[in-house]
Design a protein that fits this description.
The complex is a heterodimer of chains A (107) and B (355). Chain A is mainly α and 107 residues long. Helices cover 60% and strands 0% of the residues of chain A. Chain A has one domain. Chain A starts with a helix and ends in a 5-residue tail after the last helix. With 355 residues, chain B is α/β, with parallel strands linked by helices. In chain B, helix 1 packs across helix 2. Classes of the chains: A mainly alpha (107), B alpha/beta (355). Chains A and B meet through helix 1, helix 2, helix 5 and helix 6 of A and helix 3, helix 5 and helix 11 of B.
Chain lengths: 107, 355
């Protein structure tokens, strides 16, 4: 049933820009139109193309933020989230924790 | 004959109705919501729009390009691994793989995860395992990962919990004793919710979903709001989603207030404002479904409540669209024609920010 809703009304996650718009709702409480506008400006594309797979797959490759078709050396997971946080200029808790551990002094 | 429209009853049964009958049910549904919630009914144009959604001969309907919204869920990926009582398919795979499949095969915008039991109380004793799971999943997922749990105050009453059972005290006329029991239980629930969420925050949790809040009435909802307020202070980088159990906060206590506002009797457009005050980032209204009414009646009613809730909200509103809420029939396998009609109507007419 969840999949039916995703297909009928969802942005479709990493297939397009769904995860990026979702991050704006989670981190900035943005309503849907504001969140889409913000992401489109950061990606420098039209709002109408946020759910256009033909455009978004190239955009995701350009920024290297994870694609639905996984390249062996393509970023995914926490690496992709780290780049998304920088791209969208947002604070993501899991990324902050990851970076804190990664950059912690060795001694 | 050919102008008959195939629709569903609230229990999923497929029947046919004439266009006039569908329009009558749409009108009755929106008027029922308007009267109960003291909110505006849908306009005639909106009712006609909703009629067109039902009259669409296609089995599956959808929003138009550009109208797509964000999906959040209550651990929906788990249906791949759980069994029948949770609507699950019991695939021989782990929850971790289910979450990744939800991200990369189902293409969800966010992924929910949680413990199989899903209630907060049993999670507390195994929180270290849940932290391990969340941390591991979070390293692998690109989409936001939201940990969900059900406050479920009912588990804090005897014989499941330590406090006298309010549901037994009320019929005995022991109203004050029942109220005290609910207040004590709610305090314990708030502590447990804050404990579990903060522990998860410490391992990088990006979102926490208080799912089916208010299932045990106003004390249950109050415990959730207090937990949200506390977590906003101690876990500021974690999004908090409050999803409701029903359209109406039951007054099992009757006098409990949050920020000076009585919680009993609140409808979704009032619930969202109090959730905002507490610090919620996303609100999920749940509009009840009547199994003996048609889906046009039920969905018109749901859209009326959701439209008003979205109109007054300053935070994103994601209506709950699982089995038996917001126009989705109350049946084990909700028909896809009804599911997608709810989806489309709540977005196009209700103006939901997500589902």
């Amino acid at each position: 049933m969840a999949t039916a809703h995703i297909m009928a009304s969802g942005m479709c996650g990493i297939r397009t820009a769904g995860d990026l718009v979702a991050w704006m709702q989670l981190t900035r409480q943005m309503k849907i139109d504001a969140a889409k506008q913000y992401v489109a400006e950061k990606l420098k594309i039209d709002v109408a193309d946020l759910c256009n797979e033909d455009v978004m797959q190239n955009v995701r490759k350009k920024f290297n933020i994870g694609n639905i078709c996984a390249a062996a050396d393509g970023v995914k997971g926490i690496t992709a989230k780290s780049r998304i946080a920088d791209l969208l200029d947002i604070s993501i808790n899991s990324v902050n924790l990851f970076k804190a551990k990664l950059n912690a002094p060795l001694n | 004959m050919s102008d008959q429209i195939l629709i569903r009853m609230g229990d999923g049964e497929r029947i046919s109705m004439s266009p006039d009958e569908v329009r009558e049910d749409l009108l009755a549904g929106t008027q029922d919501a308007a009267e109960m919630g003291e909110i505006p009914p849908l306009t005639s144009d909106e009712c006609e729009h909703l009629y067109e959604i039902f009259a669409d001969p296609n089995r599956i309907v959808s929003v138009s390009p550009g109208e797509e919204v964000i999906t959040t869920d209550d651990g929906a990926s788990g249906i791949m691994v759980v069994d029948q009582p949770d609507g699950g398919t019991a695939l021989p795979m782990g929850y971790f793989n289910a979450v990744l499949a939800f991200e990369r095969i189902c293409c969800a915008d966010t992924a929910g995860m949680g413990h199989y039991d899903y209630s907060c109380k049993p999670i507390k004793s195994i929180i270290n395992y849940e932290k391990q799971r969340y941390y591991m999943y979070s390293q692998a997922t690109t989409i936001p990962l939201i940990y969900g749990t059900q406050p479920n105050l009912g588990l804090y009453f005897q014989p499941d919990g330590p406090f006298p059972n309010a549901a037994e005290l009320i019929p005995q006329g022991k109203i004050e004793e029942a109220r005290r029991a609910q207040e004590m239980a709610a305090e314990a629930l708030t502590e447990d919710l804050v404990f579990c969420a903060k522990e998860l925050y410490d391992v990088g949790c990006d979102g926490f979903n208080f799912d089916t809040s208010g299932s045990a009435g106003d004390a249950d909802f109050c415990a959730t709001l207090k937990a949200v307020a506390e977590l906003k202070k101690i876990a500021p980088d974690m999004a908090l989603e409050v999803g409701m159990a029903s359209e109406f906060v039951l007054g099992l206590h009757g006098e409990i207030e949050y920020n000076g506002k009585r919680l009993a009797g609140m409808f979704p457009h009032e619930q969202v404002k109090i959730a905002e005050e507490a610090g919620a980032d996303i609100f999920g209204p749940a509009i009840n479904v009547s199994a003996t009414e048609s889906t046009p009646w039920n969905l018109a009613r749901a859209v009326t409540f959701v439209k008003e809730t979205v109109a007054v909200a300053n935070i994103p509103v994601h209506p709950n669209v699982g089995m038996g809420v917001c126009g989705v029939p109350m049946t084990e396998v909700p028909p896809i024609d009804s599911v997608t009609r709810s989806s489309k109507a709540l977005v196009q007419i209700g103006k939901a920010d997500g589902l």
